[in-house]
Amino acid sequence: MKKTFFLAVLAVLSVVGIVLAEGNNLLIDDFEVAITGGPDGTVDFGSGNGSAVEVTEATDIKNSGNKALKVVYDAVGGGYIYVARGTGLDAKNANWVINPSDIKWQEYNAISFYVYGTDSKTKIAFDIKDNGGEIWRFITQDDFKGWKRVVCNFDKFVVRDDWQPESADKNSQLDFPVKIFQFEPLADSKGTLYFDTVELVKQ
Ligand SMILES: [Ca+2]
Ligand SMILES: [Ca+2]
């Protein structure tokens, strides 16, 4: 009897724990839009110097909501790929579900996303652009199969030393609000990745 009660209390506590944990996250993007490119697009994506990328929506493979971002890529040495969402991009309709300036950034210490891997060993750069236009990088690897949550603590991002926009403040400080995130599969690699459920995290 006591054991049953104990298990019941444990079950309640774990449900409460899950609810609280979820309550600590702020969903900033879920890719629930019709994916289009170009100046009026919902995703700012492209490639160059021999690399190639196609970005579409997936409804068969998704982590939350009804859709995920599907990225078919061919990344070659010296090439580049970008798949970006946020404010101030060339694609005018690439905004997150929440305006970056409406977020209390000081309450969060990490940004997370879900990626659907195929154990391809591809290295994936996850970049964020800060309020001074500076680009910061976090690298993860597709070394698993299925959905995985990748948590990127803000203090684990490093300022990109290979490239920065002309307009970047280049002060090596992560200035909030962050306004853009982008994914880049790194060379040499080829395959398909899915992304979903981008959140800010309190830890
Ligand atoms: Ca989604
Ligand atoms: Ca900065």
Tell me the number of strands: 12
Uncertain regions spanning at least 5 consecutive residues = none
Averaging pLDDT over every residue, what do you get?
93
* Broad shape: globular
**CATH fold annotation:** Jelly Rolls
Count of the domains: 1
Number of helices: 1
- CATH class, named Mainly Beta
| Assembly annotation | single chain
The N- and C-terminal alpha carbons lie at a distance of 36 Å
Describe the structure.
Helices cover 11% and strands 42% of the residues. The protein is globular, with a radius of gyration of 18 Å. Strands 1, 3, 4, 6, 9 and 12 form a six-stranded antiparallel sheet that branches. It has a single domain (27-201), classed as Galactose-binding lectin (Jelly Rolls), CATH 2.60.120. By secondary structure, the protein is mainly beta. It has one helix and twelve strands. One calcium ion binds at residues 130, 132, 134, 169, 171, 173, 175.
What is this entry, summarized?
With 203 residues, this protein is mainly beta. The protein is built from one helix and twelve strands. The longest helix has 22 residues.
Helix and strand layout, with pairings?
Elements (H helix, E strand, L loop, with lengths): L1 H22 L1 E5 L14 E5 L3 E7 L9 E8 L4 E7 L23 E9 L4 E7 L5 E7 L3 E9 L4 E2 L20 E6 L3 E13 L2
Antiparallel strand pairs: 1-12, 2-5, 3-4, 4-12, 5-11, 6-9, 6-12, 7-8, 7-11, 8-10
The chain binds calcium ion (CA) (2 copies).
The site of one calcium ion (CA) has 7 residues, from loops.
